[in-house]
Amino acid sequence: MLAAAIFDVDGVLLASPHERAWREALQGITDPARFTTAMYQAAVAGKPRLPGACATLEALGLQDAAARAPDYAATKQRRLEALIHSGHVEAFPDALRFVLAIKSLGWPMAVASSSKNANAMMRAVPMGGGETLFDMFTANVCGRDLAHGKPDPEIFLLAATALGVAPSRCFVAEDAPAGIQAARAGGMEALGVARLGDAAGLRMAGADLVVTSLDDVALEAPGQATLRRRAA
After folding, report:
1. Which residue in 8, 94, 175, 198 is the catalytic one?
2. pTM (2 decimals)?
3. Residue 94 and residue 172: Cα distance in Å, rounded?
4. Burial class of residue 78 (count of CB atoms within 10 Å of its CB; 0-12, 13-18, 19+)
């Protein structure tokens, strides 16, 4: 039975400007319109900054992708910081309801994102009582320098260790195929959140359950729960 929850940030909890920043940073390199949402989800989402930059340039068929990736990654980071500071971060209402409901049931929760900007974005989301989304979690392993990015399970295994819960008793909420693969590789159950009409890709990656809204997930006390859809 499941006893702990681990959340990715971008695409699960927050509609962050990551995708927009990656796209706009291509100005002067290639036509930014070539960088589609489908490309972002398949090649970039969930990866650390430099591998994400390299994957983007490779997906676009650009020469010398590895050599050009550091400059592209730096440009993307500057653009992302500008978007965050100008208020282009929104929380998904169903995600906030889900986090509060799980917290009220006593679940230990961790947040695990490869983004070094995740904590700043969560601190911008008020939850009431002077707390922010950042304060909701028992453990936080966002922005760590990892030996391996997703689909390697390293970040999720770190989160389980920080929670003191065996990986087999954790579920991971993810919106990207690479994140689903990472959860399954770590021996955890995977909850796919298909906000972009990409349910098939999440199922193909191995998700145990795929929903379009976290309101659709059944909630039970930790130690009694399985990952299942709420009854209609």
Report:
1. 8
2. 0.83
3. 16
4. exposed
Share of the chain above pLDDT 90, in %: 77
| Structure-derived torsion over alpha carbons of residues 115, 142, 111, 48, reported in degrees to the nearest 10 | 40
CATH number belonging to the domain at 18-85, selected among 3.30.700, 2.40.128, 1.25.40, 1.10.150? 1.10.150
Q: What CATH code would you report for 4-15+89-216?
A: 3.40.50.1000
Per domain, the residue ranges of the chain are: 4-15+89-216, 18-85
Please report, rounded to a whole number, the percentage of residues in the chain having pLDDT higher than 70.
Answer: 100
Encoded amino acid at 229, one letter: R
Does 8 qualify as catalytic in the annotation?
yes
d(CA 146, CA 155): 7
Which two structure tokens, joined as six digits, stand for 17?
A: 């400007």
Tens of pLDDT, residues 193-211:
999 888 999 999 999 999 9
| Interatomic CA distance for residues 42 and 22, integer angstroms | 14
